[in-house]
From TrEMBL:
The gene is tpiA. GO terms for biological process: gluconeogenesis; glyceraldehyde-3-phosphate biosynthetic process; glycerol catabolic process; glycolytic process. It comes from Amycolatopsis bartoniae. This is Triosephosphate isomerase. Substrate binds at N10, W11, K12, G179, S219, G240, G241. Keywords: Cytoplasm, Gluconeogenesis, Glycolysis, Isomerase. The lineage of its organism: Bacteria, Bacillati, Actinomycetota, Actinomycetes, Pseudonocardiales. The active site is at H100 (electrophile), E173 (proton acceptor). Its EC number is 5.3.1.1.
Length: 257
């Protein structure tokens, strides 16, 4: 089955809401409409920018979607500083990254919490982009495939097959490739993405596995996106640094289409 390519730009903790509007406008004007038939483009700005992006997208009927970089596992309550699924859904968020390695490392998020967040996103109709990927020492010890597949199964625990098929996006992001300029080779990325899809097939059936989009993330740029999306099991990219430059990001989206 044909899975539509997805390119998601993770802005991380960059850009205030005015800078966010400027970048989103540049992206909107630089990516011709014809590309959106082949590639879904999602911007994932910081929480404080989402309302501005929503207003822009709704007002100008822009063709890209947007989402958030995290959410609380809870719907509401005494959780100071957190942002819930219902709040993001009300802002029109279509995606939310969950389990990004920076959250796992700096906020000590474990697989159990990641799973709660995945379920919270799905409960509110937001597609979780579940991030998995090994640190360098695990790859060097040859444990990268098992590491990614274990994180995947833990993150999806308790979900029904149809929820996985319809709502989940997976992102394979080797930690050693994020923000380092060291992109995984085509073969290395495809090896893990293929194993992730096989794991989905084993657990939920081939039909489900066939529907789930698996992205690669880690130093993706316009000069390496084409070879990555040419792989059978890579359906797009989660892009960090390169998503902050309008020209580079739109070039990358066009090459992914
Ligand atoms: C990311 O933050 O998810 C990421 C892949 O970053 P970069 O593209 O900068 O490596």
């Amino acid at each position: 089955m044909a899975r539509k390519t997805l390119v998601a730009g993770n802005w991380k903790m960059n850009l205030n809401h005015l800078e966010a509007i400027a970048l989103a406008q540049k992206i909107a004007f630089s990516l011709p409409e014809k590309y959106y038939a082949k590639v879904d483009v999602a911007l994932l700005p910081p929480f404080t920018d989402i309302r501005s992006i929503q207003t822009l997208v709704d007002g100008d009927k822009l063709l890209f979607t947007y989402g958030a970089q995290d959410l609380s596992p809870h719907d509401s309550g005494a959780y100071t500083g957190d942002i819930s699924g219902p709040m993001l859904a009300k802002l029109g968020c279509q995606y939310v990254t969950v389990g990004h390695s920076e959250r796992r490392e700096y906020h000590h998020e474990d697989d159990e919490l990641v799973n709660k967040k995945v379920r919270a996103a799905i409960k509110h109709g937001i597609k979780p982009i579940l991030c998995v990927g090994e640190p360098l020492e695990v790859r060097e010890a040859g444990g990268h495939v098992d590491h990614g597949c274990d994180q995947l199964l833990a993150g999806l625990k308790g979900l029904k097959a149809e929820q996985v098929a319809e709502q989940v996006v997976v992102a394979y992001e080797p930690v050693w490739a994020i923000g380092t300029g060291r992109v995984a080779t085509q073969a290395d990325a495809e090896e893990v993405c293929k194993a992730l899809r096989a794991t989905l097939a084993e657990k939920y059936g081939a039909d489900v596995a066939d529907k789930v989009r698996i992205l690669y993330g880690g130093s993706v740029k316009s000069n390496n996106i084409a070879e990555l999306v040419a792989c059978d099991n890579i359906d797009g990219a989660l892009v960090g640094g390169a998503s902050l430059q309008a020209d580079e990001f739109t070039k990358l989206c066009a090459l992914a289409a």
